[in-house]
Task: inverse folding
């Protein structure tokens, strides 16, 4: 029996990352799950016969130790990230901005650099980066997040050119509204405010996004799905959606 290809999912302790770990295991990958809440990763790893390794993408030493634990890697899903705060630029909180840029941008850079040698050595590597529709346009009160997601997207899209001729595919996933802990984290644990984001709408689920990632990852090696934008039917842009009256 041949050994299954290895997929790394960052931010696999909840939401899109956890669902992606499950979907990739079903598609035949051995999944390495990384996040700070490694206990949650370990529970999912047990369920899917994967491996959990602690990972803080904002800490260079943690990323180095993580990469050392993953000598082989065919697929990297850069998913760890999120938003903090929802203020106009005039009232922007520098700490929130630093968190968003450290996690979404520098974190993606660190993990990608650390695993690129293994992805190249696999002879058939693939980097999937979960950006957002926030990487397509600005919206009011969102400059810290849209700025970070644009920067993360530029990193990813630049690699698409720089790696031409090398055996690595690059896929950017740009989801609209997905119901996860995303809004709870953004609003500092305020559940009522987080619930309001999804009021009157059927949002995407983490499984919806995971399905698309697994589809991209299981195309033949010569097929590169460059960018996939997915949104709930009721959402047109980050701030324009139809809500059923309550
Ligand atoms: P989520 O449930 O809050 O998941 C975020 C994940 O990122 C968690 O597993 C968290 O794990 C991990 N993470 C955060 N900081 C980290 C760090 N320093 N090191 C390692 N892992 C870290 O939210 P989600 O919606 O699934 O978000 C996943 C990705 O999708 C994010 O990049 C987000 O920006 C993007 N996205 C979400 C939506 C949406 O509407 N939900 C839409 C578009 C794009 P730990 O806390 O355990 O470290």
Result:
């Amino acid at each position: 029996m041949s050994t299954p290809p290895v997929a790394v999912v960052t931010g696999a302790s909840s939401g899109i990352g956890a669902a992606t770990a499950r979907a990739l295991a079903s598609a035949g990958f051995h999944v390495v799950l990384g996040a700070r809440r490694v206990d949650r990763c370990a529970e999912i790893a047990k369920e899917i016969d994967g491996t959990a390794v602690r990972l803080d993408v904002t800490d260079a030493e943690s990323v180095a130790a993580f990469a050392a634990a993953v000598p082989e890697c065919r697929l990297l899903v850069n998913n760890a990230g999120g938003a903090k705060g929802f203020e106009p630029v005039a009232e922007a909180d520098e700490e929130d901005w630093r968190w968003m840029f450290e996690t979404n941008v520098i974190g993606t850079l660190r993990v990608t650099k650390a695993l690129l040698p293994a992805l190249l050595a696999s002879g058939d590597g693939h980097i999937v980066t979960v950006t957002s529709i926030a990487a397509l346009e600005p919206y009011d009160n969102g400059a810290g997040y849209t700025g970070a997601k644009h920067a993360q997207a530029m990193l990813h899209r630049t690699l698409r050119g720089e790696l031409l001729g090398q055996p690595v595919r690059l896929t950017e996933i740009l989801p609209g509204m997905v119901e996860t802990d995303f809004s709870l984290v953004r609003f500092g644990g305020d559940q009522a405010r987080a619930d309001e984001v999804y009021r009157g709408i059927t949002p995407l689920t983490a499984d919806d996004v995971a399905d698309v990632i697994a589809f991209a990852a299981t195309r033949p090696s010569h097929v590169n799905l460059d960018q996939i934008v997915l949104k709930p039917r009721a959402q047109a842009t980050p701030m324009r959606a139809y809500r059923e009256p309550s």
Notes: The pocket of NAP is lined by residues 10-11, 13-17, 35-37, 55-58, 79-82, 103, 130, 132, 175, 177-178, 180-182, 185, 206 (CB under 6 Å). The longest strand covers residues 168-175. The CA atoms of residues 134 and 146 lie 5 Å apart. The chain has a mean pLDDT of 98.
